[in-house]
Design a protein that fits this description.
The chain has 271 residues and is α/β, with parallel strands linked by helices. It is built from seven helices and 13 strands. The structure holds zinc ion.
Amino acid sequence: MTPRNRFFALTAGAVFALAAAPTMAQAVADKLYVMDCGHNAATDQSRWSPGVNVGKPIELSDNCYLIRHGADWMLWDTGYPDAVAEKPLTSPIGTATRAKTLAAQLAEVGVKPADIRYVAVSHTHGDHVGNVDMFPTSTVLIQKPEVDWAFAEGKQPPFKKDRPMKLLSGDLDVFGDGSVTILSTPGHTPGHQSLLVRLPKTGWVVLTGDLAHFKDNWDNDRVPSMNTNADETHASRAKVAKVVADKKAQLWINHDLPTFNSHKHSPQFYD
Ligand SMILES: [Zn+2]
């Protein structure tokens, strides 16, 4: 190759790289559906806000989020078990109900469990992993410390462990194009995680998991009594607050009922 030809070959390569970079930066997920995955009439808000609103009841939403990315479907959290639709679940925390099953909401948008490539869970509490076993062929995306903690000996396993599972150690760019990113946000549990999604019209959205249970706790950085690590909780919130500021993202707090009520629900979707 002559020096001149080599120059053109290099230039062509550079132009291609420059042309490719903005496309990557603008990659988006196509659609996001907010699904009603339960409701909790809790008797004492101070379980999540120690010393504040002691003995005051609070109504909490519990959501699943279905994401379409090209030909792929991804589910973020699975809510209370669908069986709760038949039989409400009463515990010392409150009463959990389900107005609709997850199965029915998926069927309504024409998605079968086998169509779902990834089931990512924010953490392994029962109101987030209640239906993981409905998706035996999907790959569960979960942090390794969460699996080590939740499946420890003597504990009730949150779902069947013998299944496709990808164990993460930190953040993950799920589709490799920056459109859907799992953010490691430990503190509520050892391997808690949140999700950053970019949509074509809606823009950037952070799905919190239980990083905070309701807006007042997020605004005041209050740490629930059941969190496994308060320092990690503060650090994880600071990490997400920075992402929200940098991306001008919306923060969708899973259990915050006013947020849920203000949203469009499946079969409507965000794009
Ligand atoms: Zn939780």
